[in-house]
């Protein structure tokens, strides 16, 4: 019995946590402290905080991965959720390992906007597009993150004559089309943007650089 108890403890999953980007929410864990046996498999359940019964996640029942997609199961983004994982090896089952409480609206990371640059002779026009959530409207198009948050865009210009890290904030607001004027012809300018959620004081990563020479 003691050996079984040891095996149970040693295969128990560690560090169970939700990770989420634009409401694409996955549960992650690490194998137990036993060097992972080839035949170790994992079982995932989830529930809304306050519910008494756990739901099995069928696609993540007896899997060998250390990640399980719970995007559809956590689509009520204001609700707090829990996930839990147990492991089995050689017919022995570990106890469940529990995640922290996860509320998608509070905790998902926002992705950067997409930036398109159009240039005229002394100005550049930037078009910004908010990232999309995985959830769809009735007609099938994906719902943008601006539906869920009061997003501001922050636009920075990198003037390549200067240091790459020297980003100058040239715009903050909600406009999707921004004109930056009085730029010098013949100079290469790059733009990057972030999405910012004032209510949560949280920023996305920078978008990829879009460069143009006037």
Automatic annotation (TrEMBL):
Gene3D superfamilies (UniProt xref): Immunoglobulins (2.60.40.10)
Cleavable signal peptide: none
Keyword line: Disulfide bond, Receptor, Signal
Molecular function as annotated in GO: cytokine receptor activity
Annotated InterPro entries: FN3_dom, FN3_sf, Ig-like_fold, Interferon/interleukin_rcp_dom, Type-II_Cytokine-TF_Rcpt
Keyword Disulfide bond set for record: yes
Fibronectin type-III domain segment(s): 12-107
Keyword flag Phosphoprotein: no
GO cellular component terms, A-Z: plasma membrane
Pfam families: Interfer-bind, Tissue_fac
Family (UniProt): Belongs to the type II cytokine receptor family.
Record-given protein name: Interleukin-22 receptor subunit alpha-2
Organism whose genome encodes this protein: Cathartes aura
Lineage per the UniProt record: Eukaryota, Metazoa, Chordata, Craniata, Vertebrata
């Amino acid at each position: 019995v003691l050996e079984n108890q040891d095996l149970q403890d040693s295969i128990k999953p560690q560090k169970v946590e939700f990770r989420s980007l634009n409401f694409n929410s996955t549960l992650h864990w690490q194998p137990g402290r036993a060097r992972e046996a080839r035949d170790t498999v994992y079982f995932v359940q989830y529930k809304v905080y306050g519910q008494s019964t756990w739901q099995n996640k069928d696609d993540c029942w007896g899997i060998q991965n250390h990640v399980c997609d719970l995007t559809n199961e956590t689509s009520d983004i204001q609700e707090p959720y829990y996930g839990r994982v147990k492991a089995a090896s050689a017919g022995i089952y570990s106890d469940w390992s529990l995640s922290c409480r996860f509320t998608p609206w509070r905790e998902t990371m926002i992705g950067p906007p997409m930036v398109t640059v159009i240039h005229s002779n002394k100005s550049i026009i930037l078009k910004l597009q908010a990232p999309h959530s995985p959830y769809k409207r009735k007609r099938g198009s994906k719902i943008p993150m601006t539906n869920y948050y009061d997003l501001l865009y922050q636009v920075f210009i990198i003037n390549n004559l200067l240091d790459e890290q020297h980003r100058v904030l040239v715009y903050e607001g909600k406009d999707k089309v921004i004109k930056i004027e009085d730029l010098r012809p013949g100079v290469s300018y790059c733009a990057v943007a972030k999405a910012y959620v004032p209510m949560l004081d949280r920023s996305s990563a920078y978008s990829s650089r879009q460069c143009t020479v006037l």
